Give the backbone structure.
Amino acid sequence: MVHHIKYALIAVALLTVSCEEDFLNTTPTDAISASDALATEANMSLIIAGMHRSLYSQSQTILPGGSAVASTNRANEHWWVPMGDNLGGGLIHSANANNLGWRDGAQWNNHTQETNLTVEVLWYHRYNLIANANSIINRVEEGDLPMTPELREIVGQAYTYRGYAYMSLVQHFAKGYLIGNPSSDPGVPLLYATEAPFTSAPRSTVQEVYDQIASDFAAAITNFEEASSRATKVDLNINVAYGLQARMALATGNWELAAESAVQARDGYSIMGESDWKAGFNSISLPEVIWGSNVITTETTFFRSYFYLASNTFNGSQNRNNPKIADRRLIDAIPDTDYRKDMFLIDAPNSNLSAANGEGGWENYDGDEYETEEEWQAAIDSLTAVWGWTSAHNTHPYMHVKLRQQQPGTIEPDDIIYMRASEMYLIEAEAEAMLGNIEAAQEALRPLGEERDSAYDVTQYDDQESLMEHIKFQRGVELWGEGFLFQDKIRWDEGIDHSANGGSGASQTLYQDAYIVAKPSENPDWVFKIPQRELDANPNLTPADQNP
């Protein structure tokens, strides 16, 4: 990890000072020293603030310049959050628009290539977080600083970030815990050093990495219990640590811990109602948001943002030419009494003459919703007026309006939501169902289901099989577009089949080999390739360490 971790330690200083550095320059002359950055609580809080910023900034604004990993084409969580639905086949492309390699990602042509930016930037960014967290943790462990509530908050966030980063790495660059042999499957390298030469150990096992993740979340929670309260939802706190612990426990089959942690994570956060659910998912001020990034305009990513990649109201060619649609099998299954169905425009005309299904334009319309071209065009004009996109935006059946900007039709990126209370209800329900506690699982689902669907009756799912299928459905609807589908499919060992049961609405011509993907236990392509640059630079990794 020579080159990559070298960058990461430079970044400790760069977090508070904007400057460009040569690729291998380890002593930036216009940045504060690491010792100064770790000298006081105030300075360490600036490192944490820089880590917050790194979640949503374009890479080159945080990471040292002169290398591929500092490319503008991956703006970190703006990319990683929707990537889970892009790869999982839930966020469906309706036409050919390949900006930033987003279509290549949907076709599974990014994460399967060891030289692709997707694997490079994800790997680097996560180790960048780890190195910065290590700097704080190691400094505090020296034992000469008074453990004030403010310092407890700082170190709690550092432990949470480190666990978060390792969990992201092991869940993308290693085989899924529940479908593999975690005690022997290769995971990712564990890094603890914060000084030269910055090398890591070889790949630890999946179990060893998860053991470290569990230890970090436990340490975070211990510190947060005696910490000062956080200022905003951008800061990590005990709820975030419990939420990440719940995700970890769900991924590893520790059902009791998953259920308990999910309940603790959502403490103080109520399920939001219809008006908030329909507000666009563009602000971390929504009442059930536990954690997210407040994307400030001076740090805007514009055409690198989550909303550019996923929102049909964003004024960019990715969206104007390629409305994102939802799997029609999922949407058709939503009861009409469930208001979430309103955010998917089932009958929107297909106005795109370049639509992948070849059905764009009035001349190719063969439905019975519109009798004349005038009615068809009037529907397009009405949707444009209601949802605020421009006259240049195309429409398409089953296009979504769940993710919308506060100012539709613009290039404003808006906030990124990472964790909501609703997810925690769903984690609790799944964990209880897997334990065979049917009544407990039903009660966990009841508040969410009854809020979203006026005719909801959870008692009809009265055995483990039907209840688990319903939980999967509820996750699919509630969390659509928020990035969970890829990891859900790994946990459930389910493949992708856009052709089954009447079809998803995706085009086989567009999706190519990703139109049907075998389940994770049978297909090694669910595991990301390790960046070739890492194998070339790290003396503790060899070509044999590359994922198959």
Notes: Residues 535 and 543 are 6 Å apart (CA to CA).
